[in-house]
């Protein structure tokens, strides 16, 4: 069967990945209402087409943080790509380099930031960062990616605690023994008495994160700071006041707080309050070119996609 849209790749991945792996990638928090509404919200938006406008020449290029991209779609930070295909994040990095678009590398990658940089030395990469109770963990990651030529930090602010993903709990999800969170390889001592949460010891994330941590990041790096996880105009205004260079309007793919707004529904008020002072991006629920168009028309500079990249990796199993 010819693969003609992302739904085809999604169905292929669901059929060929293990149940635990599929459930991990597909998971939303609690009842998955926000995850599902990310998709439904785009279907509620209607286009107002203008005609007789001469569209014989089109140009999809854009600039993001001053860097030109071939089209306004980047890869959002998603964890554990090696679960879908053995080359994992290395394959993702090579693909985005070839397409000349942006890849936001996840802290929870199954390839290290060094391996990713070596695989696609000319790629345009940002690095997604969490804040840990031990600030040295975060600081060391920042210095590593800065030295490797990553172009921005994406500070994820919506995970003071990990969302309750019911299927992961039912499946007792753990990384298989041959895979690790490579960015932390050798950092944590292997103590079987310490419970694990997505490849690292539980309670490693810092629930006390606050706006002051923006200032702390600014004190240790010269990289632009993009805040990911903003859903309200009030927090968008605070982000601007704290001197960040960009906002990703995001609900973490519906994996954190169930019952929050769809990302695209939150975008409008954030665009209005920011009023062009910094760049705004959006992720969550984007599955078609029309979805991209709707996000751009509502004020996003570009969009990022997460799960679809993993489905593409799963399809590589077929061609190899």
Q: Round the mean pLDDT to the nearest integer and report it.
A: 95
Estimate what percentage of residues fall within beta strands.
Answer: 5-15%
Give a count of the beta strands, DSSP E runs of length 2 or more.
Answer: 12
What is the end-to-end distance? 17 Å
**Spatial sequence of strands, sheet with the most strands:** 3-12-11-10-9-6-5-4
- Class inferred from helices and paired strands: alpha/beta
Fraction of helical residues: 25-40%
Biggest sheet, open or closed, and with what strands and sense? 8 strands, parallel
Poorly predicted runs are none
Number of helices: 12
* String of helices and strands: HHHEEEHEHEHEHEEHEHEHEHEH
Rounded to an integer in angstroms, the radius of gyration calculated over CA atoms is 19 Å
**Shape from CA axes?**
globular
Cofactor: FMN
Organism: Ataeniobius toweri
Domain FMN hydroxy acid dehydrogenase: 1-320
Protein name: Hydroxyacid oxidase 2
Descriptive report:
- With 320 residues, this protein is an alpha/beta fold.
- It is 38% helix and 14% strand.
- The protein is built from twelve helices and twelve strands.
- The chain has helices at residues 6-16, 19-26, 33-44, 88-99, 113-119, 135-147, 166-171, 212-220, 233-241, 263-274, 289-297, 307-319; strands at 62-64, 67-69, 73-75, 102-105, 124-129, 153-156, 196-197, 200-201, 225-230, 246-249, 279-283, 302-305.
- The strands form three sheets. The protein has an eight-stranded parallel β-sheet with strand order 3-12-11-10-9-6-5-4.
- α11 (289-297) links the parallel β11 (279-283) and β12.
- α4 packs across α5 (113-119).
- The chain is globular.
- 43% of the residues are buried.
């Amino acid at each position: 069967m010819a693969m003609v849209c992302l739904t085809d790749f999604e169905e292929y991945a669901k059929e060929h990945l293990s149940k635990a792996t599929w459930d991990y990638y597909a998971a939303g928090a609690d009842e998955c209402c926000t995850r599902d509404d990310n998709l439904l919200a785009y279907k509620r938006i209607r286009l107002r087409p203008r005609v007789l406008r001469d569209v014989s020449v089109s140009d999809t290029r854009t600039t993001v943080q001053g860097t030109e991209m071939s089209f306004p779609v980047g890869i959002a930070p998603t964890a554990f790509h090696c679960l879908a295909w053995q080359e994992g994040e290395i394959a993702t990095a090579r693909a985005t380099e070839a397409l000349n678009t942006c890849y936001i590398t996840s802290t929870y990658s199954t390839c290290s930031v060094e391996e990713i940089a070596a695989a696609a030395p000319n790629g345009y990469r940002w690095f997604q960062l969490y804040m840990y109770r031990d600030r040295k963990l975060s600081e060391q990651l920042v210095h590593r990616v800065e030295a490797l030529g990553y172009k921005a930090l994406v500070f994820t602010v919506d995970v003071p605690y990990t969302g309750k993903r019911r299927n992961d709990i039912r499946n007792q999800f753990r990384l298989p023994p041959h895979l690790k969170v490579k960015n932390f390889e050798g950092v944590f001592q292997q103590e079987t008495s310490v419970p694990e949460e997505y490849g690292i010891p539980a309670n490693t994330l810092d629930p006390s994160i606050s706006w002051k941590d923006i200032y702390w990041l600014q004190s240790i790096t010269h990289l632009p700071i993009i805040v990911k996880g903003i859903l309200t105009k009030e927090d968008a205004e605070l982000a601007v006041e704290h001197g960040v260079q960009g906002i990703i309007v995001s609900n973490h793919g519906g994996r954190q707080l169930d019952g929050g707004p769809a990302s695209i529904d939150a975008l409008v008020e954030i665009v209005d309050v920011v009023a062009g002072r910094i760049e705004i991006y959006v992720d969550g629920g984007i599955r078609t070119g029309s979805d991209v168009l709707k996000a751009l028309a509502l004020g996003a500079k570009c969009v990022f996609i997460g799960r679809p990249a993993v489905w593409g990796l799963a399809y590589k199993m077929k061609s190899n």
